[in-house]
Amino acid sequence: MFSLFLNCSALHAVVVGRLILVESIVRGLMFLAGVLGNNWLAVRSFPTQRSSVRTNEVLFLNLALSNLITNYLVDLPDTVADFAGRWFLGETYCGIFRFCADLSETSSIFTTLFISVFWHQKLVGSLKRGGSPVQMDSLCLVACLLAGSWTVAVVFSIPHFFFVKVEASNESSEDCIDVFPNKAAKQTYEIIYLTLANAVPVRLLLRWLRAPEPQPGGTDRTPEGGPRPSQAPAKPTMASSSQVRAAKSVVGVASVFLVCWLTHLLLRITNSVHTSSLVVEVASYIAASYTCIIPYIFLHGVKKLHCSCKR
């Protein structure tokens, strides 16, 4: 009987060890995909001339920076800790780790929202006004919005410097966790943070997505001297093809954004009511998956996913 118990314990240890190994490998692959995608987004968005900086490029660079903070300062230590089987970076970096996680997450959410609104205005609003400039196509406005989003991100991330500790779950395992003074303080923080940094951006994105999708060929209004309904429709132009491609990218970005952050929001709410290490782990995977998927969708939308050697 005792030998059977030892065999079961050994089998359980082997299974758990293999699961941890698989988890570590998956997180490592997500880290590599995120680093490659976000670095490529930054390189391809960097303006070639200082005088030709565009709104789109500033937004993409800010998104890449936000995601790279996650990749290098959150995902990389987390991946190494998974392979090591415990948190070994100390309590000081534990605070930095938690700070960077919420900082980059909040900035990434708001930047994705700004890019989606900007593209929405270019594809829908601009077409309705015959190609006239849109409100978001202003470096001054975008700089103010990004400064505001970073300020909000910093304010909500600062508590992680003071309310964290490295907790030993057993003799060989340690983890970096948030520890608030009491349950009421934790729930208050979570409610305010999740409302302003998650629920509000998701609600705004849903609101802007209700507008009709632009159709290839421009506006519905027939210009004076243009083709009549009885005439054959004009062939799609290169511009209309780019608009359709960008519109599909907006839909793809919005879909990933809503699926990831709605799920993440629900998990964070669940964890604020009933603390669970499993829920926290799943939420971190969802956040990591977002940062490694979203740059490729944006690169595809602006036709910069490939590397051309032609001059």
UniProtKB/TrEMBL annotation:
Entry's transmembrane regions: 12-37, 58-76, 139-163, 250-270, 282-302
Record bears the keyword Chloroplast: no
Stretches the record annotates as Disordered: 213-238
Localisation: Membrane
Keywords annotated in UniProt: G-protein coupled receptor, Membrane, Receptor, Transducer, Transmembrane, Transmembrane helix
Annotated membrane topology: Multi-pass membrane protein
InterPro entries in the record: GPCR_Rhodpsn, GPCR_Rhodpsn_7TM
Molecular function via GO: neuropeptide receptor activity
Domain G-protein coupled receptors family 1 profile per the UniProt entry, residue ranges: 38-298
Pfam family, one: 7tm_1
Key word rRNA-binding present: no
Gene Ontology cellular component list: plasma membrane
Official protein name in the record: Olfactory receptor class A related 5
Organism: Takifugu rubripes (Japanese pufferfish)
Gene this protein is translated from: LOC101062614
